[in-house]
Amino acid sequence: MNCEMCGTEDTLVVALVEGVELKVCKKCISYGKVLKKPVFAGSASRSRKVEQKSEKETVILIKDDFAKLIKDKREKMGLRQQEFAKFLAEKESLIHQMESGTYVPPIELARKLERQLNIVLIEEKEIAPQRMRAKTDEVTIGDMIKIK
User: Fold this and answer.
1) Which domains does the chain have, with CATH numbers?
2) Roughly how many angstroms between the first and final C-alpha of the chain, as a whole number?
3) What are the two backbone dihedrals, phi and then psi, of residue 37, each rounded to the nearest 5 degrees?
């Protein structure tokens, strides 16, 4: 069973905490006065939902040096920003902002630039899954307060 203060799954003790009877774990006993001895999880245990992320998640990102890549490609093509903007069918101000790094292109625009310029701007990174946490159907006091 889960502690009604912090949510920890442990053997519980009924305690009087701030005038309220709660089933608390060994850590949280110090916040109140013990009324009844341990409550063991029997056949009447509460249903739990566990979030599981077994595989790593893939995240699509624009490369950090996208501005340099775009500018270098434009210069290799021998085009000025105005001509380059016409070639890409984009505004000249947008090209200037991308090359200076003040504007990060959205994924769709980055894919367009990749196709037309034959460069790689998008990278995929795998990130580790977040810590798994057991979720109960009820809210504990620990969900509402920050224990020091």
Assistant:
1) 12-51+132-144 (no CATH), 57-127 (1.10.260.40)
2) 23
3) -70, 175
Q: Look-up: residue for tokens 């109140």? A: 32
In the structure encoding, which two tokens stand for residue 3, read together?
Answer: 């502690």
The 10 Å Cβ neighbour count of residue 93 is 11
Q: Which residue has the tokens 């701007």?
A: 121
Residue 86 has which token pair?
């016409």
Highest mean pLDDT among 8-17, 23-32, 115-124, 137-146: 115-124
- 102 conformational bin, left if phi > 0, alpha if psi -120 to 50, beta if neither: alpha
3-state SS class at 60: strand
Query: Quick one: tokens of 104?
Result: 């990060």
pTM, rounded to two decimals: 0.49
23 with 29: CB under 8 angstroms? Answer: no
pLDDT tens digits, residue range 54-113? 567 788 888 989 999 999 999 999 999 999 999 989 999 999 999 999 999 999 999 999
Burial class of 92 by CB neighbour count within 10 A (0 to 12, 13 to 18, 19+)? middle
Strand partners, 12: 39
Residues making up the chain, counted from first to last: 148
